[in-house]
Design brief:
The chain is mainly alpha-helical. The protein has helices at 9-20, 26-46, 56-67, 72-91, 112-116, 121-134, 139-150, 154-159, 198-210, 234-244, 280-293, 298-305, 309-316, 321-330; strands at residues 165-166, 171-174, 192-195. It is built from 14 helices and 3 strands. Helix content is 50%, strand content 3%. Helix 6 (121-134) runs antiparallel to helix 7. It has 2 domains: 9-108, Tyrosine recombinase, N-terminal domain (DNA polymerase, domain 1); 121-281, Intergrase catalytic core (hpI Integrase, Chain A).
């Protein structure tokens, strides 16, 4: 067995990131740094000052420690980074050979991959509060309000026309119009009215009256959500939502990046390269999860969001076991 050279956790992480830097994108390197910071926190908590001392039992303890805070798929991603670091540390004689193979992640439950990434209720409310204060009745305000408050799909949002607003009912109507390029995912079965309430309908109505581009689409219809050219594509809406959900749009960056150099910001940036940006589907998943936590009946959510109960539970329910227990407690005698 090769004699090990002393290596502190901090120096080990620094060396690993320096080794990785030339061969990966900046966003990938930042993700690795974020994941390994949790490993450093654990080392400090349990008193590991020299990586030479790491054992398979220690790594099992780390997995158990981390498992209580994050979803299974997130844990698997974090452990893949730890494994890579352990392999590098073995190469530089900082840990014993073969230690990386002793990191065992729990098996994923069915559907965990699709449920993992969602917009949390706290973040959604922070975004809406910011928009209400600084960009009231803007296109961004309306997009976020409709996606979060209704849980509708990106295609349904794109399909809305100005004429689908019903002021007397404070509602929007979703209509399947495949002949003019706005089909709903479930066809006519997905047609429905969705209640917004007075407050959120007022936001949408104000936008339609003052901030909406006065344009028609290729079929002569008046889309509710517009670019200056007409009805936006689904990809365009995807990019708008990715930009809108970057934390730096309404607060501080949790990834310690500088806006001037971040590849997720600016006219040439890619919002999806921000680890915290979210897609329209992730907003929909967050909406459904939030309503489940508020004890809204699954049947009501199913009808409102046009999703079967089986699919809802399999792909959209991102609640933790503790959150599910808390909901059950409220319904016990």
């Amino acid at each position: 067995m090769t004699d090990l050279e002393p290596l502190s956790p901090e120096e080990g992480v620094t060396r690993f990131l320096r080794h990785r830097e030339p061969s990966v994108r900046a966003s990938t390197l930042q993700n690795s740094r974020t994941r390994l910071n949790h490993f450093l926190d654990w080392c400090e908590e349990v008193g590991i000052e020299n990586l030479n001392d790491l054992s398979g039992r220690d790594l099992a303890d780390f997995v158990a420690w981390r498992r209580g805070d994050i979803a299974p798929i997130t844990l698997q991603k974090q452990l893949s980074t730890v494994r890579a670091a352990l392999g590098f540390w073995a190469d530089i004689e900082g840990v014993e050979d073969g230690l990386r193979e002793r990191v065992h992640a729990p098996e994923l439950p069915d559907g965990a991959e699709s449920r993992d990434i969602h917009l949390s209720a706290d973040r959604a409310e922070s975004i809406l509060d910011y928009l209400d204060r600084y960009q009231y009745a803007s296109r961004e305000h309306v997009i976020m309000a409709l996606l979060w408050r209704t849980g509708m799909r990106r295609g349904a949002l794109r399909a809305l026309d100005v004429g689908d607003l019903h002021a007397d009912d404070h509602a929007v109507e979703l209509v399947h119009r495949p002949e003019t390029d706005t089909a709903l995912k479930n066809g006519t079965k997905g047609e429905r009215w969705v209640y917004l309430g007075p407050e959120w309908f007022e936001v949408v109505d104000e936008y339609a009256a003052t901030n909406r581009h006065d344009v028609v689409d290729d079929h002569g219809r008046r889309p509710l959500i517009t670019s200056k050219y007409g009805r936006p594509t689904g990809d365009t809406i995807y990019k708008w939502v990715g930009k809108l959900t970057r934390p730096c749009e309404y607060g501080d960056c949790p990834h310690d990046r500088e806006r001037a150099t971040c590849d997720a910001v600016g006219s040439d940036g890619y919002p999806s390269r921000c680890p915290s940006s979210r897609s329209p589907h992730a907003v929909r998943r967050g909406h459904i999860t939030a309503y489940l936590n508020r004890e809204v009946s699954p049947e009501t959510i199913s009808e409102r969001s046009d999703v079967s109960l089986d699919i809802l539970y399999q792909h959209y329910d991102a609640r933790t076991p503790r959150e599910k227990m808390n909901v059950r407690i409220q319904n016990l005698p």
